[in-house]
User: What shape does this take?
Amino acid sequence: MLIWLAEYLQQFVSGFGVIQYLSMRAILSVLTALGISLLFGPQMIQKLIDKQLGQSVRDDGPESHLEKAGTPTMGGALILISICISTLLWADITNRYVQAVLAATLFFGAIGWVDDYRKIVEKNSRGLEARWKYFWQSLAALVIVTFLYVTATNPQELQLIVPFFKDVSWSMGLFYIVLGYFVVVGSSNAVNLTDGLDGLAILPTVLVGSALGLIAYLVGHVEFSNYLHIPYLPGAGELVVYCAALGGAGLGFLWFNTYPAQVFMGDVGALSLGAALGVMAIITRHEIVFFVMSGIFVVETLSVIIQVTSFKLTGNRIFRMAPLHHHYELKGWPEP
Assistant: This one.
């Protein structure tokens, strides 16, 4: 929003024009989100402790996790607040790409909040029932992806790009919605599955988000996109401001989430951040690259799929426990 104020003030003071530069707004965005996260983190953690919103630990899990019982959770709300405030301040919120990724952040954050609330406040160990969680995730993903499909003005927005090959693409048509749905829902749940150790989910999220920010800048720049033979998507560069906010908020949260964690982000953080990454991968037309970048999320998810499939078909487990990080914990690998 401040970009509009800067445009107005530029009439009187030319120096305000610098705020209109994407690079400057990205810097201000990361600093704003980082500042909010670090400044209000201790207060939020204390508030969660006062309300006894502590993490419950599975009895059949690794013994090392027993000491984590009672650690405040739902701290992901701090990440979302930091991201949204910073993005609203420094991004062009009339940009439909920014609107889409903010919608994903808020919709999936709400789903995660309800799940956490039922687990912790209502003492319902199941949380939000799986079928209802999947239903609301599916609905939110379909609404967002359909919005991007309907508002597309450039044929390249609907093409599947094959990386490392010049001018190799496939016009997807309605399959864009199908692919987008699986990317968003899959990414959301993959990050959530990975969020089982201190700092394990948030640091890769920051790294992948930063990489997607770089990609967004390149596809939104006509000269770079032509030089690299990637789609040129006018306006996509505005996502850099969101990615900067994600990076700042994530690093601020990591200060409190690194071992030994003072707070966990819970589903409210994991589901929303995963969905936001998926939406940005769709917007930038780099789903395949996103799959590679998200290696840790993919491996954690595959370990669960393999474990469940093997047990149902043969009655045997491949891993000592899934997701994969629990397998290594039970083998004696220390967490720090």
